[in-house]
Amino acid sequence: MTKPRKATYWVLAIFVLGSLFPFYWSFLVASRDNGMLTERVPPFLPGGNFFANAARVFDTVPFWKALGNSLLVSGTVTLTTVLFSSLAGFAFAKLRFRGRDGLFVFIVVTLAVPTQLGIIPLFIAMSELGWAGGLQAVIVPNLVTAFGVFWMRQYTVDALPYELIEAARMDGCSMIRIFWNVCLPAVRPAAAILAMFTFMTSWNDFLWPLVVLDAGNPTVQVALEKLQSGYYVDYSLVLAGTTLATIPILIVFVLLGRQIVAGIMQGAVKG
Amino acid sequence: MTVIDNAVRAGERVSPRLTFRQRLSRWDVKVSPYLYIAPFFILFGLVGLFPLLYTAYVSLFKWEAGDDHPDFIGIDNYKELFADGQFWNAVGNTVSIFLLSSIPQIIIAVLLAALLGGRLRGATGWRIGILLPYAAGLVAIGIIFANLFGPKYGLVNGLLQTTGLDPVDWQASRFGSHVAIAIMVNWRWTGYNALIVLAAMQAIPRELHEAALIDGAGTWRRFTSVTLPLLKPTLIFVIITSTIGGLQIFTEPKLFDAMPGSNNGGSTNQFQTVTLYLYQSAFENYDLGYASAIAWVLFVLIVLIALGNFFLTGRIAGVKRK
Does the ipTM exceed 0.95? Predict the structure, then answer.
């Protein structure tokens, strides 16, 4: 490993600026009015209209409701995915039962099945159940994922010594108490990473919510799409919406960035 | 696990008449694993496997949305699909956008990873910086890029004109729209892939580099002869995951349309992808049978590529094991 040259920093700085630019541009347009877009040389400093444009977003689509819905959907999905994945990961990593290896291979194979391709029967089923338009239609299909089970199993194998389980059993612990009091604390770092990924994926999900939800009860992504689709696109309005939708996730990212980076790199080595 | 099993078996031998508590405990050991893995299998059965099979079933019918008595038409949907110019156009667009996005993306990701691998000041800060696009909402990004690439007032065309070049109609031209959508995809995923490659690079034993250095290999030579070959499995992983994602691309082309809300993928379907066509067939034309046929053909395409991955990885695994 040689010491990096100055040029390395310049190249990286250009990439980071490139990463940031679309966010900045979105805020720039959102803080001015549509007239800005017709100017030959666009201004590079934000104007003062952001709050006015943001207020119009709340008038045009039910944005508070969308934020609440997204939070509820992503929060629920994250909780159940982490819980069920940890449970299954514990069973696959540390418990012995008939068919274990075969079932685990099956889970790995399902990773390759893109669930979006089942949207038509799923849509029919949701309509039959009367769930179409309701949040449960977005929550229920995502309660647990193959990736989550796989991830937690890989981590639990190394993180949880058999001696601990044995000691707990000697003390008369039931399996579920061993999971709760011994396994969960040991796998907490992996569970936290899984929680972040699940939350981000769920928050950004678009195709299925677009199919199954209606405009009156949207998630943030669906509300944004509705802002944009019309004969005349008011970009200050639309980009005020995208800015509002991006702020919460950017805050999370800045706070937890270090762990997210570590999680991606850890997953890469294990996978 | 053997410990628990042996303990249970030992218990059996010592006292054949078990107390209620002991029986409860044995039952707990036996049944718990199945209870713990059950949520995944039940859910996968309901929202993964069943829909996939049912999609195959629906694809054999003339099935309008809300239809109570769909007509069984056998493989007619597939016959129609294979003769459908719009479908093959969508396949071509999907592959074109995929190639334009994944090839530069992977090359840049490897180079970025090489830059990030040195002893940088503030290494984590740089890593977070290049990963930022990954955090952004896909819909927000689609809208922002549609605006940047706008034909009349878009910033990209403005820049082209100030440098004396001709503006490009990014939405109307086939190639232009593919490039714009690919840039959107690359912007989002390059940093993410760079981190995955970086992790693999850091797992390469340092002695290999030192040995090459002693043999007189320069930076570039060490990169091509030591780093790249050892990265192969990771690169294949990255290529295949981006293939599966790329073949299903939906949000970007949907939001790129000059007629927002449209599912045409441009006035002449110049950037309509397979998933966008699937969505249009099902939820705009309400032809669920036809859309299901599209879903199955797409599924088979993805499986073929996943199998290709499997064999490639198998061949390269020999290199990995030392």
Answer: no
- β-pairing, B61-62 with B71-72? antiparallel
Identify the three-state secondary structure at position B294.
helix
Residue of B nearest to A137 (CA): B47
Helix (H, G, I), strand (E, B) or coil at B62: strand
Question: Which residues are CB-neighbours of B12 under 8 A, at least 6 positions away?
Answer: none
Q: Which two tokens stand for residue A134?
A: 């309701």
Pinpoint the alpha helices (H) of chain B.
2-14, 20-44, 50-58, 76-82, 85-116, 123-135, 138-148, 155-162, 174-202, 206-214, 219-222, 228-247, 251-256, 274-283, 288-320
Residue A32 host element (H or E): none
Residues of B in contact with A204 (CB under 8 A): 137-139
Contact B37 A149 (CB under 8 A): yes
pLDDT score, position A83: 96
pLDDT at B315: 66
With both helix axes pointing from N to C terminus, report the angle between B174-202 and B228-247 in degrees, rounded to the nearest 10: 140
Shortest CA distance to B110 belongs to which of B217, B219, B228? B228
**In angstroms, what separates the C-alpha of B228 from chain A's closest C-alpha?**
16
Q: What CA–CA distances, in Å, run from A73 to A131, A254, B79, B88? A: 14, 22, 40, 37
CB contact under 8 A, A165 and B3: yes
Residue pLDDT, tens place only, B274-307 = 999 999 999 899 899 999 999 999 988 888 876 7
Q: Residue A163 has which token pair? A: 């001696």
* Cβ <8 Å between B25 and A3: no
Q: What is the pLDDT of residues A33-47, one digit of tens each?
A: 766 666 666 677 777
Give chain B's end-to-end CA distance (angstroms, integer): 30
Closest CA to A132 of A245, A230, A224, A216: A216
Q: Indicate the Cα dihedral angle A244, A249, A250, A253, nearest 10°.
A: 170
Do A9 and B118 form a contact (C-beta atoms < 8 A)? Answer: no
Cα–Cα distance, A175 to B151 (Å, whole number): 62
Nearest CA in chain A to B203: A269
Of B3, B40, B219, nearest to A88 by CB-CB distance is: B40
Does the pTM surpass 0.90? The reply is no
Burial of B216 (0-12, 13-18, 19+ CB in 10 A): exposed
Half-sphere exposure for A236 (CA within 13 Å, toward CB): 19
* Integer CA distances (angstroms), A35 to A41, A80, B38, in order: 12, 47, 57
